[in-house]
Amino acid sequence: MSDTITTENIRNFCLVGRGGAGKTSLAEAILYASGTTNRLGKIEEGNTVCDYNDDEIERRMSISMAVASLNHKGRKLNLIDTPGYADFIGEVCSAVAVTDAAILAIAADGQIDAGVDELWEMLTAGGKPTAIFANKIDRANVHFDEVVAGIEGRLDVKLCPIVVPGDSPEESFDLLNLKKLKVGGNKCAAEPLGAPEGRAAKYREKLMDAVASFDDALLEKYLEGGTIPEADLLAAARKAFHAGKIVPLFCGSATALPAVHPLLDFVAEYFPAPSADGKDGGMFSAIVFKTLSEPGMGQMNFVKVCSGRLTAGADVYNSTRQQKERVGALCLVQGRKRSDLPALVPGDIGVLVKLKATKTNDILIDARLGRDMEGAPKPMSFPDTVVDMAVYAKSKGEEEKVSNALSTLVMEDPTIKYQYNGEIKEMIISGQGNLQLDILSARMKSRYGVAVELKPPRIPYKETVKGKAEGQGKFKRQTGGRGQYGDCWLRIQPLERGKGFEFVDDVFGGAIPKNFIPAIEKGVVATMTEGVTAGYPVVDLRVTVFDGSYHDVDSSEMAFKIAGSMAFKKVFLDARPCILEPIMDLEVVVPDDYVGAVMGDLNSRRGRVAGIDRVKKRQMVKAQVPLGEMSMYSADLRSMSKGSGKFKMQFSHYEELPAHVAKGLIDAHQKTKQPEE
């Protein structure tokens, strides 16, 4: 079919849903029902098309999005299967951004939680026509009427039932086309349903009501005669779905195949074609929505062509990085498998192999431009990181290998970031959750042979003083020949929070020669960097050198630097030292049921709740909380809110650490200090 592919016969869609809803099993069923595969892979056997990475097979869960292309009824269908766990939300963001419609999988035997709400909001905000597949409808104690009512109540939608369960596990009713369907293997036999009865009649009426409500003329016909001509019904259903006015519902089982065949037909016939700009002759533009670099496969960039035509061997311009690239092979993918393509037309999805500089979220345009292109696709948006961990190489001397491995892996996932934090002297990786970062560290070991350990980052405490004090530091050493002599008097006093450090030269009468004053300041600054009481940097104070003495022969810059350090340590301890802790502005969004638990937990973390605001169906708790109390908060919030809580946190200011907490830091530091020479 590759020679006859046009934008009009392409269907790009994604499968989204919570973990355990059965998305990957549904993808497997779609591939099998279409004849693309010759067997129905199973997650527990580790042989599905879309979960092909070793860690996905081992954990029995999707970690990365997977693309599979198939042909059905003269259409090319590009399916993107997405992970269901919140840690991998970036994969969902990418898939939703480059597809034109979605299938939301919901487990009929489980509760519809706030995670489904968030996915639904993402789809509606993106204007994506969405069909719902109620999976596992064949499980014990699943009642169809309750499933429909539960979905409508939770998502606040009016469903349009297309396929409902029949009288046996293999049977279902197609209410749009009035067919009775029976599955055998990967085949689906259809026969006329006739006049619907019982459940079929009830939900056929619900379907017609939903479709007719979209069109005033159709509604009038329906109200007058109680029916709608078939041609009018099908045409109206297509328009209503494209406009997002109806939410088609398919009830079935991804493992037993009921409802999968009519769902596949609906995708081919009713899902919208890509809204690509221009035909084959237009200016080329595309967006890279996923980058993979797997051993043995090389770097692969998944692209959606937004306009123009892309051919193998073409030159393109990466407008994000402002450099030209030569396209090598173009590929169509089926999970791990790939096959060469001669070209990609507008709206199509494929893989570019071994581009040198191109990464996720880069924009590619026609090489003839060599500049930004008007009307080019916009970069995708991804959520901010919410959890930080310090990463340490388990073997000494492998820090560079760790950095190189992180650079490659972070390239694949824009929701993970890493940087060296000079303030706390740690390499920090940040992501969406602890599971995501644990998998990242496991991939560093399996792919690149680098074993790392993840630890909560050090808290960037500071030291300062609350009072004034002054004192002397004298360094005198005679070892034969020329000696060392430096003597200075320092006064320290606190400054306002955030003012940093001031050094004042108030020496009169030449008690200390001017050329030694900078050395005293260096000694003070070096000691401030190392800390005095607990090993944290000293901030927000003024140091004044006001007296001292020198020796014509023995005085040196080094001697005065040491004297400055000695004086500062002594005076600092006499000026009522204290430790400052970073305070964070925190916003926690949870369903109403969990507000009490969140507030109680924040109180236990020495947090101060500032207020509560309504955000759509949820509540936002605003608070200020010490950073030192927020270790593992991502996992704790997920636990107390059953996975429905989200939070954002950013630095606000520093405050004095309570004395009983500070004592623990000071005692721990004193134990690690080596005796001074």
Structure description:
The chain is 29% helix and 32% strand. It contains 16 helices and 33 strands. The strands form six sheets. Strands 2-3-1-4-5-10-6-7-8-9 form a ten-stranded mixed beta sheet, sandwiched between helices. A hairpin with a 5-residue loop joins β6 and β7. The N and C termini lie far apart (81 Å). The mean pLDDT is 89.
What layout of secondary structure does this protein have?
Layout: E1 10-17, H1 23-33, H2 54-59, E2 66-72, E3 75-81, H3 89-98, E4 101-107, H4 114-125, E5 130-135, H5 144-155, E6 159-165, E7 171-174, E8 179-184, E9 187-192, H6 198-212, H7 216-225, H8 230-242, E10 247-251, H9 260-270, E11 285-294, E12 298-307, E13 310-311, E14 315-318, E15 323-326, E16 330-334, E17 337-341, E18 343-344, E19 349-353, E20 363-366, E21 387-393, H10 399-412, E22 417-421, E23 426-431, H11 434-448, E24 452-455, E25 462-465, E26 469-477, E27 484-494, E28 501-505, H12 517-530, E29 541-549, H13 557-574, E30 577-591, H14 595-604, E31 608-615, E32 618-626, H15 633-640, E33 646-656, H16 659-672
Parallel strand pairs: 1-3, 1-4, 4-5, 5-10, 6-10, 28-29
Antiparallel strand pairs: 2-3, 6-7, 7-8, 8-9, 11-12, 11-20, 12-19, 13-18, 14-15, 14-20, 16-17, 16-19, 21-23, 21-24, 22-23, 25-30, 26-27, 27-29, 30-32, 30-33, 31-32
Helix pairs in contact: 1-9, 6-7, 10-11, 12-13
